[in-house]
Amino acid sequence: MPTRRTGRPRTPPRWPRLDGGLALAAVLLLAACEGRQSALDPGAANARDILVTTWVLFVGGTVIFVGVMALAVWAVVASPERFPGARSWVIGGGIVFPVVTLTVLQVHEFGLARRLVTLAADPALTVEVTGHMWWWDVRYREPGGGPLRSANEIVIPAGRPVEFRVDSADVIHSFWMPSLAGKIDMIPGRVNRLSIVAERPGVYRGQCAEYCGAQHALMAFDVIVMEPERFDAWLADQRRPAPDPAEPELARGRDAFFAFGCQSCHAVRGTPAVSRIGPDLTHVGGRLSIGAGSFATNVGSLAGWIASAQHLKPENRMPSFDVMDGETLRAMAAWLESLK
Ligand code: CUA
Predict the structure, then answer these.
(1) Ligand 1 centroid distance, CA of 173 (Å)
(2) Residue 54: CATH number of its domain
(3) How many Å apart are CA 267 and CA 277, to the nearest integer?
(4) Which residues, at least 6 apart from 80, have a Cβ–Cβ distance to it below 8 Å?
(5) For the segment 258-301, what is each residue's pLDDT rounded down to a tens digit?
(6) How far apart are CA 85 and CA 335, in angstroms?
(7) Cβ count near 187 (within 10 Å)
(8) Tell me: the pLDDT tens digits for 137-166?
(9) Distance (Å, rounded) from C-alpha 43 to C-alpha 26?
(10) Which of 22, 34, 37, 252 could form a disulfide with 205 if both were Cys (CB 3.0 to 4.6 A apart)?
(11) 186 lines ligand 1 (CB under 6 A)
(12) pTM of the predicted model, to two decimals?
């Protein structure tokens, strides 16, 4: 059975012991602030703007809370002579301060919201993403170019404006790449748009952020930010159809794919498989993960997925093909893995 890449640990966590354990917990907590799926580790201006606002609200709120509590304690314990000017405290602290503070914050929020929804005038790339229960259909469009279909992984160039256009095929999902931008709803029948410029090449992780059914938690995706030249080469490479099987075993795997009717749901460009019900598999072997960010891509996880999709991700639309003999299963997994 493939190893799950993310999700709950296998054994329930124990509470940290109250000596070195607490220190360790604090270090782990701080370490969790960095990483490929952390709003606290921004890799684009949108995410940084949101983070700054988060800190302003968190630190400001803390300071105000502590100040108010201190004043409340003072007011209770001090005698009336030692707590002068009660009326000015009420007017100053109760009316003037909140009005000024909230007005300043509101003006700041208007500016932030405007920046976050402003679309790039001419994006170098448009990425259309449609949410499905529970996977992501991805189409790349360059200015003047036709769509290039992929799934469950998004590759974008660093330093170039990219526009995302998201919608949904079934229920409401939410498209969220915490290190790169804020959440954006995916709504059936409506296209929502978002512009970002990713700054740092690297591998990030996105996650559906709106409860959408049993496998909402396993509706994730990888976001790979590449240097622009590498991205151009990658995109050109992706436009190629799937390669012909180089070995008899791979040919057997491809034949099994059609014998078992996989083309009823999946497309593999360069073959007769053209369905769009499920993820496009043309270059599935080159993606980091399968099952919408659930398992690392390798022959073992692909075979496990084919044979036990309903066990690994119950209620997803792909049946478990548990009637296949081992050799056929291995061959089909090997063929899919070879589709780089
Ligand atoms: Cu899709 Cu939650």
Answers:
(1) 4
(2) 2.60.40.420
(3) 9
(4) 86
(5) 999 999 999 999 999 999 999 999 999 999 999 999 999 999 99
(6) 81
(7) 17
(8) 999 998 877 889 999 999 999 999 999 999
(9) 24
(10) 37
(11) no
(12) 0.83
